[in-house]
Design brief:
Blueprint lengths: L5 H23 L14 E7 L5 E5 L5 H7 L8 H4 L8 E5 L3 E5 L2 H6 L4 E2 L5 H4 L7 H14 L16 H7 L3 E2 L3
Parallel strand pairs: 1-3, 5-6
Antiparallel strand pairs: 1-2, 3-4
Length: about 180
């Protein structure tokens, strides 16, 4: 006993073919070009240690040390000169202890916050955190940096064996040649 007769099978095959054609057309059909908008600049800081509200803070403009500590719950008295000093660098880590110290966020935190890693100070382990970059490529970058006396421009990555245009395009958003 047949489940479907010949006419029913033909109708099902036609419907299946039409569905596949429609799906293929949606994939191949030209769409409106996407015009990338310039993302709004975000300034990201990490506050750690004995701050009232440790964590990662994001702002639309650069912040001074006093402003950052106020955002993290305040409670830290700073000399007027330190509180009103120049802006703290984007991607800085502020540690509140007996003193307030300012350093750089870890590579893992920088990637998490969409901030580039500096090729000036990066370690093999830092670079290996970049999606698609393994330990071998990370070591090749560090070896090149050591041999050449530093990396001054991201384009220099293309001089490293194993990093062609495709890999360069994949890695570039995660890296900076600035300190």
């Amino acid at each position: 006993m047949a489940l479907y007769n010949r006419e029913q099978l033909m109708v099902l095959c036609c419907l299946l073919a039409l569905g596949l054609c429609r799906a293929g057309w949606q994939v191949l059909a030209p769409s409106e070009p996407v015009v990338p908008q310039s993302p709004r600049k975000q300034y990201v800081y990490e506050v750690a240690g004995a701050a009232a509200g440790p964590g990662i803070y994001s702002f639309d403009s650069p912040q001074q040390l006093g402003q950052l500590l106020d955002a993290a719950g305040g409670g830290m008295l700073l000399p007027e000169a330190a509180a009103r000093s120049r802006n703290v660098a984007n991607g800085s880590s502020i540690f509140v202890g007996g003193q307030v110290t300012v350093g750089s966020m870890s590579a893992q935190a920088r990637i998490h916050c969409f901030l580039p890693i500096s090729l000036v100070t990066a370690t093999v382990d830092d670079l290996a955190l970049i999606p698609g970059m393994g330990l071998i490529t990370a070591q090749a970058i560090i070896d090149y940096r050591d041999r050449s006396g530093g990396i001054r421009d991201l384009g220099e990555l293309k001089k490293i064996g194993g990093i062609g245009s495709k890999k360069y395009e994949r890695f570039a958003p995660y890296l900076t040649a600035e300190n």
